[in-house]
Amino acid sequence: MAVPAWASVIIALGTFLVLGVSAEIFYNRLTRKPFKPAGKHAFITGGSTGLGKALAIELVKKGSHVTIVARRQAELDSAVEEIKAARVSDTQRVVCVSADVTNKMDVVRALEEAKVKVGMDPDFVFTCAGAAYPKPFLELELDDFERSMRLNYLGQLFVAHQAASRMRDANIQGKIVFVSSMLGLLSFTGYSTYSPTKFALRGLADTLRNELKRYNIDVHIFFPGNIDSPGFVTENATKPKVTKDIEGASQPASPKDCALALYNGIAAGHYMITNELVGEVLRCATRGVNPSNSFILDSIMAMIAQPVGSIYALFADYMVRHAKDD
Question: Transmembrane residues, as ranges (predicted)?
């Protein structure tokens, strides 16, 4: 007896869901390890303000030792006192290192200095340092692109490379957490210096997520939206009006909420982590061959994202074509 077409569709869909859920469960059991930061050493670049400082506070609340890295010593000293106030034990070490992550030798020095001050190599590395200075493409100088690439991409790559080398040599089952942006999942006018660097981080993280498995080093990548921080104030100072119009007037998330979203994502074993619904939809639409956070929900949101993305692209194109000079 021939199987009706509708029954074939149901069978195919059911098979797809069963295989997908089974693959996710199998992957979770094989690869995802508990996140237990107590007694471990967290190394955080961009740790004197914004997301980096908020993350340091959350980690010391969980019992971590913390090293924060940034360029300005005065801001580092102030942040250290604030972070120390959140400790759950006087034995926790909270230290700072003044360094420029765009300088290779500074990165090497910072990791060695952190080891000496804390007494151990970092177990977890969070690369939070970065900045955006949005402008129209044709109003930028060539040096602007190089400067952004050094800070937002190479500054994270240098830290990840040196930290992973230390983890491998010391047989540390560590974690490297890159901080990209929602603009590492989509882009539009004004972000020609910034967005490509955040897309590049995604490519690096995708590579290392797979490659560093041989050393039991986990890799995660965070795609936050706008964060209410000093960096966001600086970003808005040069941001073209049309860019603001396309973004809309949404309220930026607090550094604490972003830090909690990142922490919870790592604790859940997620590779790609976001902090808001739009980011989740974009993640699902652009996940590629990486593991899902929830197979069924990710599949549903990916289907929703396709038509929504096309509509958003039409909107962004319309806004640019009809934009008036600032």
Answer: 6-27, 176-194
Q: What is the pLDDT of residue 221?
A: 98
Q: CB atoms < 10 A from the CB of 63, how many?
A: 16
Supply the pLDDT for residue 295.
82
Tell me if 160 sits within 8 A of 208, measured CB to CB.
yes
Q: Give the 3-state secondary structure of residue 322.
A: coil
**Token pair of 32 as six digits:** 């995802």
- What confidence tens digit (pLDDT) does each residue in 116-161 have? 999 999 999 999 999 999 999 999 999 999 999 999 999 999 999 9
**Sequence letter at residue 266:** I
How many Å apart are CA 150 and CA 288, to the nearest integer? 26
State the pLDDT at residue 122: 98
The per-residue pLDDT for range 289-326, each reduced to its tens digit, is 888 888 888 888 888 888 888 898 999 999 999 887 65
Number of H helices, E strands in the chain: 12, 7
Measure the CA–CA gap between 160 and 154, rounded to whole angstroms.
Answer: 10
How far are the Cα atoms of 96, 166, 209 from residue 156, in angstroms, in the given order? 18, 16, 15
Q: Take residue 199 and report the two structure tokens written for it.
A: 């897309």
Residue 270 burial (10 A CB sphere; 0-12, 13-18, 19+): buried
Cα of first residue to Cα of last residue in the chain, in angstroms, is 69
- Residues facing 42 on adjacent strands: 66, 124
Helix (H) or strand (E) holding 295: helix 295-321
Instruction: Give the per-residue pLDDT at 27.
Output: 56
In the chain, the largest separation of any two C-alpha atoms, in whole Å, equals 80
Q: Which residues of the chain have pLDDT under 70?
A: 1-32, 325-326
Task: Give pTM, 2 decimals.
Answer: 0.89
Whole-number CA gyration radius for the chain? 21
> Domain-by-domain residue ranges, the chain?
36-284+296-322
At 33 the pLDDT is 72
Measured from the Cβ of residue 201, the count of other Cβ atoms closer than 10 Å reads 25
Instruction: Supply the residues annotated as catalytic.
Output: 194, 198
The CATH architecture annotation of domain 36-284+296-322 reads 3-Layer(aba) Sandwich (3.40)
